[in-house]
Amino acid sequence: MTDVLAIADHRRGKLRDVSYEIATAGRGLADDLGGDLHLVVISGTVDDFAAKLDRDGVDVVHTVSDGEEYNHDIYIQAIEQLTADIDPQYVLVPNSVNGLDYAPALAGRLERPIVTDTIGLESDGETLVATREMYGGKVETTVELEGPAVVTIRGAEWPKAEGTGDAEIRSFDVEIDDAALGSTVNGFEEVAGGDVDIADADVLVSVGRGIDEEENLEIIHDLADALDATVSSSRPIVDNGWLPKNRQVGQSGKVVTPDVYIAIGISGAVQHVAGMKGSETIVAINTDPNAPIMDIADYAIHDDLFDVVPALTEQFQ
Amino acid sequence: MKILVTVSEVATVEDAFEIDGTTIADQYLGADLNEWDDYAVEEAVQLQEADLADEVVTVTIGPEDADQTIRQALAKGADRALRVWDDDLADVGLLDPGTKADLLAAVVDDEQPDLVLSGVQTGDDSFGATGVALADRVGYQWAAVVNHLEHEFADDTASVRRELEGGVEELTDVDLPAVLTIQTGINEPRYASLRGIRQAQRKPLEVQTLDDLGIEGVDSALALTEMYEPESETDVTVWEGGADDTAGDLASLLREKGVAQ
Q: Which residues form a coiled coil (chain B) (predicted)?
């Protein structure tokens, strides 16, 4: 058991970036083990996907043509059967919303342990050493597990595999037990539409949990007006209904890359950082000097936003 | 319909803290009801208020200290609580999702709920895997990262929306019985009323040992071997001084960048 099997992620006809990143993570582990890297792409236009996934370092791309869109029961049955066939030491799954929907059940079927949301991986063949965060990114940890495992990897932690490889593309026939399909996808809906597109803004004044109360948002709007900037936010503000969904920056909201991103009272949970770390200049205003946002900020003020924000607004009036 | 809600007490960490070996030093740690589970409890209580659920039971893996958190869930409207604990569990360092799912599966076998609601993840170890692992062990259907649940269960199915990345939601029907992992924002969790807090003290909270659940010993698949503060990815410039000074520094930077010119 020296091979690695990595599962591609796609949605509505498009491969997601993590599919190329998981090829890099998988190649690294396969090198540790001295084995092959297998990718598998399940459902949809698999031949087209397989051609795109044939990048440097990929040995085999398996295609499973059953199903159109993601269905966890089809994924699990396909991966279970493929795992029985190629016997990989590690099964790598993207730590995406869909990855987290099937990987834990897959681990159960394979009778393997699972470790999720990893940001670094190494193996000596028997012991897997995985790096992952705890406490909302305040600390990093290493955890070890023995033997074959299912592992999910965080997006945007590994570079994308590049180039054109010479992978063998194999169509894999699975027997799908239709009686085991217990859920039906009826459609998709875009929920972050509306009049404002925060992805177009040059300057974002972005507010998080530190604002405490809805009425305090006024100082944020005042600052945005003074700077001729657009207001965006982290998730809790939208969860509370204080700003509409189209203002949310992050994994489940929008990815933004403004010239200047001013993070006010935002701790910098990984889901938020995923949506804004490409900003040209990041300024963080937060009382907590250890907040994860400080790890990606270019400029920081470790002070109370209720003092700093009005003072800043005044500078532009 | 009977609903089981998994409720975790999570460790919270103060802004400034120190690491002691592979844990955060005790004096910097607090405890709270896991944020995601708060939404799961609220969803269950709303289903009960809508006469769609007859009973809401919570289950927690944790020591006696967790009772204060469990009482919070009871004060918000859950009917009774189960707490799984055993001295054997205290000796296991980091409980992996599979081990947690094994313990919860034994409770599901006893309770036979129609619906299990579980937070998407916990705020401390953030595995985000226990709910789906549990579904597989008990042979239930499931959906992960649910941010809307229709309060109507036609043909023994639950109609949900799953929150995918990038502002897209997936509309899915799931056969019951099922486990749904609940995302924040699905509802507005209530604050417990004084009356609720008083009533919670009288609601049943039953402790179950591994023996009670028919489980012989536990062993985590994961060993926590190191903990450290992450290195900063950028060379951050920290502006010091009073708010007027730091606001002035930031204003200069913004003018340099051509903002508001």
A: none
pLDDT tens per residue across span A133-172:
999 999 999 999 999 999 999 999 999 999 999 999 999 9
Q: Quick check: B229 and A138 CB within 8 A?
A: yes
Domain span at residue B102?
2-213
Q: Do B232 and A294 count as a contact with CB atoms less than 8 A apart? A: yes
- Closest chain A residue to B160, measured at CA: A185
Output the domain CATH number for residue B83. Answer: 3.40.50.620
Among B225, B229, B231, the residue with its CB nearest the CB of A144 is B225
B127 falls within a domain:
yes
Judged by a CB distance cut-off of 8 A, whether residue A288 touches chain B is: yes
Per-residue pLDDT of A248-275, as tens digits, reads: 999 999 999 999 999 999 999 999 999 9
Taking the CA of residue B13 and the nearest CA in chain A, the distance in Å comes to: 7
Q: Which of A180, A211, A229 is the last residue of a domain?
A: A180
Element (H, E) at B188: none
Q: Residue A185 falls within a domain, yes or no?
A: no
- Whether residue B77 lies inside any domain: the answer is yes
Note the pLDDT of residue A317: 87
pLDDT recorded at residue A194: 81
Residues A202 and A137 occupy one common structural domain:
no
Closest chain A C-alpha to B89 CA, distance in angstroms: 18
Between chains, do A105 and B133 touch, taking CB under 8 Å as contact?
A: yes
What average pLDDT is seen over chain A?
Answer: 96
Yes or no: say if B247 and A312 are a contact pair by the CB < 8 Å rule: yes
**What SS3 state is found at B114?**
coil
Q: What gap in Å lies between CA B230 and CA A154, rounded to an integer?
A: 16
The mean pLDDT of B222-229, rounded to a whole number, is: 96
CA distance A207 to A264: 5
Across the interface, whether the CB atoms of B144 and A97 are under 8 A apart is answered yes
Nearest CA in chain A to B17: A290
Return the pLDDT at A133: 95
The answer to the question of residue B207 being in a domain is yes
pLDDT at position B253, please?
96
Distance from CA of A286 to the nearest CA of B (A): 11
Cβ pair A300:B238 closer than 8 A? yes
Q: Is A72 on the interface with B (CB under 8 A)?
A: yes
ipTM of the complex model: 0.96
Determine, for residues B162 and A311 on separate chains, whether the beta-carbon distance falls below 8 Å: no
Domains: count for chain B = 1
Domain of residue A242 covers 198-315
- Rounded to a whole number of angstroms, the distance from the CA of B141 to the nearest CA of chain A is 6
